[in-house]
Amino acid sequence: MDRQGDNHHIIIKKFGGTSVISDQDRERIRDLVAHDLASGLTPVLVVSAMGRQEAPYATDTLIRLYQGIHPVEAHRDLDLIMSCGEIISAAMISATLNASGLRAKALTGFHAGIVTDDHHGRAKVISVNPEYIEKMIEEGFIPVISGFQGISLAGEVTTLGRGGSDTTATLIGEALKASRVEIYTDVAGVMTADPNIVESATVLTGMTYDEMYEMARHGARVLDFNAVDVAKRSGLTLVIKSPRSPSEGTLIADKVLDERILTAITSDQPWTQYRLEHLAAGFEDQRFMDELNDRSISIDMINFFENSKYFIIDSRREDHLDEALRALGITCRKRPSCAKVTVIGHRIHGVPGVMRRIVAALEDSGIKILQTSDSSMTISCLVEGRHAPAAVNCLHRAFGLEKNEG
Questions:
Q1: Residue ranges per domain, the chain?
Q2: Which of 285, 270, 392, 275 is CA-nearest to residue 334?
Q3: Residue 146 pairs with which residues in a beta bridge?
Q4: What is the per-residue pLDDT for 347?
Q5: Which residues contact 261 (CB under 8 A, 6 or more apart)?
Q6: DSSP-derived secondary structure for 211-260
């Protein structure tokens, strides 16, 4: 296979857990593949584990099965059992295609040439060698690749962390120089807000890599931000869509697609706000940050002043941070059960009055802002967790996102 130019006929199709769980779902995938073949395209499939939560082969189910005996967060054996969910999906999809007269082969992350470091549970990909996939394509097979997994340099099975199947799809797309990567999920595309929170949320027809990255980083579960990174660096066109919907979905590319101010609103929780106040004159910021780094503790919404420090942390990491503060002899005040509500848009800081509209909308709804932070295309407000749905809804209305006005 000539890998010097783009393989415009290759299309990567990634199917999430809710898209592969039933016979009807798998038959829908078969029909999409048949349509691609009839259109002269070469589909390469990447699949997640079947179902979510309590489903028998879901990743969470496999984790609980192992941790019920050995409660560790990361272990080479835990990676081994977690990888089984995607392998089962790949075998089932391959069987569905073969049973209908198509030629398919299920592949593991090892077959797909995904080489990682040895950091079990959230391994980083070092390289991707697509030679085996290319061989399958040349022999007339449809590769069905197990997402979320790779093989370490030492030959151990590794997993890539939450959202790893999205990253697998974009890495394979990059390695094969595919024309595009389609991510199939349980919504019709990227929406202006979580439709489970905002009934009037609408599907976005297009957005930039940077907007999608910020949405993913601030709580949107539709696509992993690491996958967006890979797509942006390689110029891959991404499409987010549902196999159950006739919608064309959301196109994600490099260029700015319109002049809207806001693209979407996200919320994420639980967060805990920490307030370190009345700090002694000898307090060393660097020593404090070194202690956090040594314990792999990440903080967000950081406001550092001379005698006080405000920041938030994922509530699930509270015990680790409390231990670090005790080691440093630091007392603090905590506010648990918070949520971070974020407005996102590529022109958010190019138009005056955006912050004023945010403050007015939240105040009119009786929602107190506890802390804020911003970037080139985001403004985040920390609110009490119980107010998060109301905050997202009132901001969605305030900026006319139900009409895609921004």
A1: 7-184, 264-403
A2: 275
A3: 47
A4: 80
A5: 345, 347, 348, 351, 354, 399, 406
A6: HHHHHHHTT--SS-HHHHHHHHHHT--EEEE-TT--S--EEEESS-----
* Measured distance CA(14)–CA(27) in Å, rounded: 15
pLDDT recorded at residue 306: 84
Cis? peptide before 246, omega within 30° of 0: no
Q: Which residues pair with 143 in a beta bridge?
A: 105
Superfamily of domain 264-403 in the CATH hierarchy = VC0802-like (3.30.2130.10)
Looking at the DSSP bridge assignments, the partners of residue 144 are 45, 106
pLDDT of residue 282: 73
What is the per-residue pLDDT for 392? 98
How far, rounded to the nearest angstrom, does the alpha carbon of residue 335 sit from its chain's CA centroid? 27
Question: d(Cα 60, Cα 131) in Å, to the nearest integer?
Answer: 32
Residue 4's pLDDT is: 43
Q: What is the pLDDT of residue 53?
A: 74
Q: What are 291's two structure tokens?
A: 């202690």
CA pair distance 392, 389, nearest whole angstrom: 5
Inter-residue contact 197 to 393 (CB < 8 Å): yes
CA atoms within 13 A on the CB side of 311: 18
Superfamily of domain covering 7-184: Acetylglutamate kinase-like (3.40.1160.10)
Residues whose CB falls within 8 Å of the CB of residue 88, separated by 6 or more in sequence, listed in order: 49, 50, 57
Q: Fill in the amino acid letter for 161.
A: G
| Alpha-carbon span 187 to 11, nearest angstrom | 20
Q: Which pLDDT does position 2 carry in this prediction?
A: 46
Note whether 367 and 387 are within 8 A (CB). yes
pTM, entire model: 0.90
Q: Is the dihedral of CA 72, 74, 79, 85 positive or negative?
A: positive
155 phi and psi angles, rounded to 5 deg:
90, 15
Distance CA 152, CA 69 (A): 25
Helix residue spans in 107-208 (DSSP H)? 131-138, 164-176
Of 377, 380, 378, 357, the closest CA to residue 369 belongs to: 380
Q: What is the mean pLDDT of each run of 10 residues along the chain (406 residues)?
A: 60 94 94 96 97 87 95 94 97 97 98 97 96 97 98 96 95 96 94 94 93 93 93 95 89 77 93 91 84 91 90 94 90 95 87 91 97 93 98 95 70
